[in-house]
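Exercise 7. Predict the structure of Nuclear transport factor 2 family protein from Flagellimonas profundi.
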Amino acid sequence: MRTSKIILTSILTIMLVSANAQEQLISQEKEAIIKVMKAYKSALENKTTEGTFELFSVDSEVYEQGGIEGTYANYIEHHLGPELSHFNRFEFSDYTIQVEVGLPYAFTTETYTYTIELQSEKGASPRIINRKGVATSILKKIDGKWKIIKTHSSSRNTK
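Solution. The predicted structure, encoded as tokens:
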């Protein structure tokens, strides 16, 4: 009977230690994922794509407003990259992020409001765009780094 109690106590201790280690690992992974997503958001607010290509897998897929944009490189070359040069300001507010980790994948949902101030013709007032948005992304841990493999965003006018 005493041997059974020792074995049971040992098994329960191992399970508890393992669960705590797993919880700590997931917490660290979530922090790394949030860092990737915030780095991308920060680049957009700074109106640059510098350093963002390393956040995406080479064969990533970008979807925006119901459209298929292709890979991140294609999206930057043909869509977002040229747009950024027409912005005076691009700001996010009311930003929240939820992260779910299921190694080697992670899933994020971001909600936010964004404000874009477009450059104007000489003498004209700049046009201001305010939109409420949501983005979902799938990340995969590739060679020890989290990479965005799919992302989809949409927005609507603020009320």
